[in-house]
Amino acid sequence: MFKVKKLKFQTIGLVLLYCTVNGYSAKIAADPELPLLGENASVNLKKEIEFGSGLFDKLKEQGYVIEDPLLSRYLQDIGESLLSSLEVRVRDYHFYLVKDNSVNAFAAPGGYIGVNLGLIEISNSEDELASVMAHEIAHVELMHSMQMIEKAATVNVASLISIIAAILVSGKDIEAASAIIYTGVAGSAQSMINFTRENEYEADRVGVEVLKKSEYDPQAMADFMKIMQSREQGGELSNIEYLRTHPVNSNRIAEITSRTSTVKKKQPKFTRYQQFKDYLFYMYPDNKESRSHSRFSLALEHTRNGRYTIAEKIYQELLLTDPDSIWFNYALAENMEYRNHLETATQLYRSMLLVYPADIAITARLVNVLLVQNQPETALNIVMQLYEEHKAQSRVYKLLSDIYRKLNNDPSRQLAEANYHWFSGNKKQARIQFKALISKGILDAADAESIKEKLALD
Q1: Which residues face 127 on adjacent strands?
Q2: What are the distances in angstroms from CA 300 to CA 24, 278, 310, 342?
Q3: To 10 degrees, what angle do helices 157-168 and 174-184 make?
Q4: What are 115's strand-pairing partners?
Q5: What is the spatial distance between Cα 64 and Cα 159, in angstroms, rounded to a whole number?
Q6: Mind listing the pLDDT tens digit for each residue in 363-403?
Q7: pLDDT tens for residues 79-91?
Q8: Do the bridges between strand 112-116 and strand 94-98 make them parallel or antiparallel, or are there none, so unpaired?
Q9: Of 91, 10, 86, 9, residue with least CA distance to 53
Q10: Which of 85, 113, 227, 254 could form a disulfide with 213 if both were Cys (CB 3.0 to 4.6 A apart)?
């Protein structure tokens, strides 16, 4: 797990983990108290993406990125809802869950915004989580991280990625992380502190405007900061990394409250946030304190311990109260799989796809169940129905590879595996396999041409 709390250099995490992504609304920039969001348009976009994707890939390699598609989609949906308030978007955002129990959220250039499990654990609502994400989006729009990276001009991108990765996983080698930070980034610590304080106020102001234009409650930003402040006063600062990179004070809370005081109270948004949290901590149960006392959490605990009949009864009761819940339905279908009631599980997954069409998480479970029942042709038809929407996702090619293996279609399996590597970011391995397929002459003309286009563009 990430353990940044022992690092003495407390500001660098904030400085380098600010977000740097999409263009912003002219209406928001028109506020005389808000910074001009187009001032840094000259920043090299390619460099931003190289930096952000490099850090993301490094964290993924080390096993810190949660890649569960159902959980990931929930976070991405919140992010996309917030981004809908932007009138101009020049970069893509990637919101991802980080397998760490410390209370933190961070972002890197290129729009890679990570949210730790620990932060989700202490949040009370989807609005509070959205407020944190809006604040991070604001840092992105204001290009705060690139400003500091440009100041560290003597450090190349690869070194900066190593610095931040060292901070995030510094529990493994704290002294080495500190050495990298001190030797890699020159400058006055106090000037960095002053710089980051200004950035926090700016991000608060823009983040509030993002929330105002969204379906979320802007006051949730102040509510979440009060949670942070109360924990700091309670002596829990050492466990709250978010306070190191996003220092909270009464003035910030007061300003946010003032900016939201005239906003008409929004109708509470219906969310399944607690269901999401219950399933998240069922899948990643490292922290026992994260478990709620909900009926859903109880049912998931029964499933975990093999008490499938008891769990099924609770799931069925829950579905009477919320029949369209993806979490209740998904957990019940999984539970039926574990009971080896594969036909029932198949029916449940098919029904879910009617409500959530082209959902890759549900499709993946359905495909696996069909393959166990020796129905690869049916599985292939289902995957191809969502292929166009998800053809840039590596998970699709993993499913295709499994299906073609079952069908004994070796050329298609090899092509699917090569595409899996390509879209997973392992382009070196993908190129090897692509070239081997072309040299064998076993592909049809369309597939061969598609490969040549990829290799030419790379």
Answers
A1: none
A2: 42, 8, 10, 19
A3: 140
A4: 97, 105
A5: 20
A6: 999 999 999 999 999 999 999 998 888 988 999 999 999 99
A7: 999 999 887 777 7
A8: parallel
A9: 91
A10: 85
Both tokens assigned to 366: 């359905």
List, in sequence order, every residue forming a beta bridge with 95; answer none if it has no partner: 113
Query: How far is CA 121 from each of CA 46, 104, 183, 308, 409, rounded to the nearest angstrom?
Result: 35, 11, 35, 26, 45
What are 415-440's pLDDT values in tens digits? 999 999 999 888 889 999 998 988 88
Q: Give the Cα separation of 301 and 289 in Å (integer).
A: 14
Which residues are within 8 A (CB) of 214 and not within 5 positions of it... i.e. 6 or more apart? 81, 82, 84, 85, 130, 134
> Residues 167, 177: contact at Cβ < 8 Å?
yes
Give the model's pLDDT for residue 374: 97
Measure the CA–CA gap between 29 and 25, rounded to whole angstroms.
6
Q: Please tell me the distance from the alpha carbon of residue 226 to that of residue 95, in angstroms, as a whole number.
A: 24
Residues constituting the chain: 458
Q: CA dist 414 to 376, 405, 419, 432, Å?
A: 17, 9, 9, 11
Q: Where are the alpha helices (DSSP H) in 93-168?
A: 117-122, 126-142, 144-151, 157-168
Count of beta carbons in the 10 Å neighbourhood of residue 228: 22
**Domain-by-domain residue ranges, the chain?**
12-260, 266-356, 357-458
Q: Which of 351, 357, 307, 305 is nearest to 328 (CA)?
A: 351
Cβ pair 433, 417 in contact under 8 A? yes
Other C-beta atoms within 10 Å of 358: how many? Answer: 13
280 band by pLDDT with thresholds 50, 70 and 90: very high
Tell me how far apart the terminal alpha carbons of the chain are, to the nearest angstrom: 35
Locate tokens 């993993």: which residue?
Answer: 398
Assigned CATH class of 266-356: mainly alpha
Neighbours of 140 (CB within 10 A): 30
pTM of the prediction? 0.81
